[in-house]
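A note from the maintainers: we've had questions about how concatenated examples are separated. There is no special marker in the raw files; a new sequence line simply starts the next protein. For clarity in this README we add a label.
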Amino acid sequence: MTRPRRNGTAEQLLVPLSGPAVQALPMPDGECMLYREAFASALSDALFQTLYRETPWEQHTITVYGRTVAAPRLSAWYGDPDAVYRYSGTRLEPLPWTPTLLDIKARAEELAASRFNSVLMNRYRHGQDSVGWHSDAEPELGRHPVIASVSLGAVRRFVLRHKKRPLKVAIELGHGSLLIMAGATQHHWRHQLPKTRQPVGPRINLTFRLIV
């Protein structure tokens, strides 16, 4: 982990791609745990290919500052029959679990010590696909939601920003990694996957959650 540096007015901490296999991130008002090798390399390759090929990807519309626009990524929503999710003006009805997703969910539940009944899948096709600043703090996620985020495919930078303090944490999320955001993280921090001009391949991200 590199020393903090100034990024505009924010103090930024960079968590590199290499490091301890399991690492708790030093985030005030938040609880984040990074598992760099939650899934073995060969298994991660197979999971990526299966999900890329078998998922009925869609480009959803989202509402941003009162405007309805096409999301800069492809998505799919899976879960238990009653796990309906609403975000950014979009209402998602869950597709039924597949054997592959249930296997990934079981691993995420093991490491997070939590139960999940749904997953939002995002496919980032290239560096211009992204997700903007937001918190996963919708009422149906409960008071202190646990979000387990699995990354497959190309390495992308994931950034968290404190809502009230000039603090940022940037994480290089690699193939087969799992980031767990828990406790009060969603109340005090926002996160994004920014665009990049660097040539990058496709990435699939799965964020497991519990709709209550």
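[label: protein 2]
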Amino acid sequence: MAFNPMKYMMKLAVFLYRVSGGKIGGSVNGFPVLLLTTTGRKSGKTHTNPVAYIQQGDEYLISASYAGQPKNPAWFLNLEKTPDAKIELSGKSMNVHAEIASSDERTQLYELFKAKGSNFVEYEKKTTRKIPVIRLKPQPA
């Protein structure tokens, strides 16, 4: 198996976020960041990724932009298979249920990301895929 430096950088980012209660790694490009823990669609193991979000009421919107890569990130594919996940932010964790925004709603919600950060405009220009937007809805414990 080849050495994957990104895998270790991600683990370090998650570790620093957790030990600092989100003070380290809690924002990127002006966006707040949460930790998203999904269940692997193939392995069944949990995977945690830092993800930029927009809070809308009691829900959290995330975008599977993957920096404009031609494919969706693994965490999105995991949510498609198992929409129940966990998020951590501000030192607290909660269970959430993911709902992928429909076509019309997705367009409207992605505009929120573009309005807040020009990087999302660039991501959209770099790829031919429709970048998904996901609503994370808090669930009772």
